[in-house]
Amino acid sequence: MSTLPGVPSLVTKALRKSLAMGYLEATRAETGRLLATLAATRQGTIAECGTGCGVGAAWLRSGAPSATRVLTAELEGSLASEVSDMFAGDGIDVLHADWSALESAAPFSLLFLDASQALMSERDDVIALVEPGGMIVLDDFTPSISWPPRVHDRLDRVRADWLADPRLTSAEVMVAPDAAVIIAVVRPGGSAGA
Ligand SMILES: C[S@@+](CC[C@H](N)C(=O)[O-])C[C@H]1O[C@@H](n2cnc3c(N)ncnc32)[C@H](O)[C@@H]1O
Asked: Of 20, 22, 136, 169, which one has the greatest count of Cβ atoms within 10 A?
């Protein structure tokens, strides 16, 4: 299989699957490169909420050390099954389950939230899944230059709460002119696993 220049072959495979399935919600390359970079610093287990066609998981696997486990949960059965087959032998475990089922494999050294806006409001449950010093990456924000953050001229409460939570050290990182992520590191004593 030919690869796209500068794109890991595993990511190319997942992008081809996304195209073949008409799936248009794949993690964009700017975010993927950041995920791979963060994953390169991680040991233990990395998890993703919301597999989709596997692009985010492929970026995480491409960056992570080989001994680091990569696990991803997808609610939709057909997607989970297709992606599980696609990644057979690639070192990515795909779980057909609601994101909350990831708890059985916690704590995580990195957790990538890419399932739904509603999940971002479950801050306590999400933080409880991550080890002290572990990272939570939240996708799909529109960059905001104000504090508190605003979208469409309204307070973005969810984003403000993540950035101000005293259990975390967090930053909004702009990955493209129209896209930002939040990176939150769990402080010592900040999660249940502490
Ligand atoms: C934005 S897409 C994920 C894209 C994917 N991370 C990628 O990089 O290509 C969101 C996915 O989350 C899944 N999802 C939604 N709610 C979920 C939940 N409660 N638990 C697990 N997956 C969920 C959806 O079915 C959808 O495939």
From this structure: 136
